[in-house]
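go over my protein:
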Amino acid sequence: MSTEVRPAGRGTAGYDLRHHGDAEVRGDGRSLTDLAVNVRAGTPPPWLRERISGALDGLAAYPDGRAAREVVAARHGVAAERVLLTSGAAEAFVLLARALSPRRAVVVHPQFTEPEAALLDAGHRVGRVLLRAEDGFRLRDGAVPEDADLVVIGNPTNPTSVLHPADALLRLARPGRTLVVDEAFIDAVPGEREAVAGLDAPGLVVLRSLTKTWGLAGLRVGYVVAGAKTVRLLERAQPLWPVSSPGLVAVQACLSERARAEAAGFAEAVGADRAGLLAGLARLAPAGVRVYGVPEAPFVLFRVPDGLDVRERLRGHGFAVRRGDTFPGLGPDWLRVAVRDGVTSAAFLAVLEQVLSPAGA
């Protein structure tokens, strides 16, 4: 493990912290099969579209988030004062950077880069704990500096797809430290195994998103579960009416019993589809393809020689995948691919095999 500290600034050590998967499918990328963005395909489902569209008649009134906040609180067994609704989980990272004054902020990488970018933009110095591929990107005891008073980690982590044990995360919590756990993909894990949202631990802040499972990236809806004092701090840094009326309806719909049952079914299905994708990638090991760790999210990170060139050749064959070299701790030989249905993954694997063959090079 290693930790490096960088001065405030936008993007460090050659990493483009503002690059995200959607950049792969903009412009001429719109015609490609999208394996770069981790949003569930075929969403939002018709019943959810109907619920959201039903909110359009009330757009003349300012949004009132109290009912949605109560629904989130009930879902996690906490008081409503411990919940903050946000314009996507990404807004929560900005609020944390603005509202808190950490002496030593640390982000555990490789992971979603927006937390570090927000901290840097707010003028904070940021340390990096780099988890190693050789360790399966697992978090080991002692990796995080004892004097870190703000720690950010994803679970399951984007892009590594690794799910850290809840007890390993909770061992990071202590008085005087804010522990931020990004659970944006946890509803894609059967039973939300290893989730910590709603648990009582010193300084614990958990972020959730409705974007991934429900295909609501354009609606911008998420929430924070934390201590009441932390929620009040974040709320003071937040603009008025941060979540639209359709967004508030989406919160209530996506946390309903019907939605939770559908999400559970999706989590089981994505596990089966991921197993098929992993088996196909394993068959390409002679060509240098390697997966590290145990993927448990709706995406898989793999290493392949000349990854950036492979990415470009995949685009030429109709597939967009996420480059990995913008994530601290990774380099140009890393690619991330979304888990899709078996037919789509089989088509991707066939093209990848063709690209990696001597004739396809």
Notes: The longest helix spans residues 257-283. The first strand starts at residue 2 and ends at 6. The domain at 46-257 is CATH 3.40.640.10 (Aspartate Aminotransferase; domain 2).
